[in-house]
Specification:
Blueprint (H helix, E strand, L loop, with lengths): L8 E6 L9 H9 L3 E6 L1 H6 L4 H8 L21 E7 L1 H9 L5 H12 L3 E5 L3 H4 L2 H12 L3 E2 L21 H12 L1
Helix pairs in contact: 4-5, 4-7
Amino acid sequence: MGAMSTDRVLYLLGAAAPPVLDLVPVIEQAQADGWDVCLGLTPTAADWLTESIPSLEQLTGHPVRHRHRRPGEADPWPAADVALVAPATFNTLNAWALGLTSAWLVAFAAEAIGKGIPLVTMPCVNQALVAHPQFDRTIATLRGAGVEVLLGPGGFEPNPPGQGRPAGYPWPAALEAVRKRVG
């Protein structure tokens, strides 16, 4: 399909959780909604998707990003109108809230707060990780910074450890939240 000619740019930024393994229908739906989609991944998610990256680049019309640019290297993407960090793992969410930017995806998301880029995130974490004392602080920090966090009814509802339901990850709720953030 390739990149759509549109002025609306969505950065879809995925971490290494099972829903990241089936991004094609999500990208296609976003494109059908009129978004020019740029896909960014954490290093582990990029490793999981190594064989799929060429077809994902063909689908989006943009390089898939997963590392920091080298000094002097041009930004290969158009400017974002909105960014969706999903699936967002426990590690990615905590690193983002704490400003730990060793991964490009987290560095972009952290900087996007200060740049005023609308941000939506949908966690993909189990109930045991949600019970960790840092998790509530992380969600409060991100929400306090203006990030829309889709957690709980209407968004992602954590499951018991080992009982993930990647096919039930609520991508439609995430895409709807992105539409509403941009207006």
